Amino acid sequence: MHSRWWQLPIWLMAALVLMPVLVILLSWHSAQVEVWQHLIATGLSRLLKNTLMLMLGVGVMVLLLGVSLAWLTAVCEFPGRRWLDWALVLPLAIPTYVVAFVALGLMSYSGPVLTIWRAVFGRDAWYPEIRSPWGSFW
To answer: How far is 6 from 11, CA to CA, in rounded Å?
Structure first.
């Protein structure tokens, strides 16, 4: 008979991954009305609106940029295509909070991107606010 000792670590890892989800699901049985009333009164609609805007914005940007670059590297043959294949995967190796801090530093009011933008287009030129739902997916 086959030994299945190797399945134990897999089941343990699956249990660890599922534990936060199970805690959330089990906590719904003990509804705390005061918490929900406070959330609804203070800003649940704003949070839901921001979440939907972020989902739509990221989805559109992924469709435009991700699908077009995937199609380009899969169908077309051009110099540097193999390098681009690897370069497109590199952002997955960087933690998202690091990317967020770098983007915030680069595109904040005193960052180099906006400083150059103001130098080229003038001090009153429009620039998307990075600390907003619309600016977060740019």
So the answer is: 9
Decide: 91 and 99 in contact? Cβ < 8 Å: yes
Cα gap 128→32, rounded to integer Å:
39
Q: Which of 116, 134, 133, 135 is nearest to 125 (CA)?
A: 116
Q: Which amino acid is at 113?
A: V
Q: Which amino acid is at 120?
A: V
Digit-coded pLDDT (tens) for 54-76: 889 889 988 999 899 999 999 99
Amino acid identity, position 72: L
CA distance 117 to 109: 10
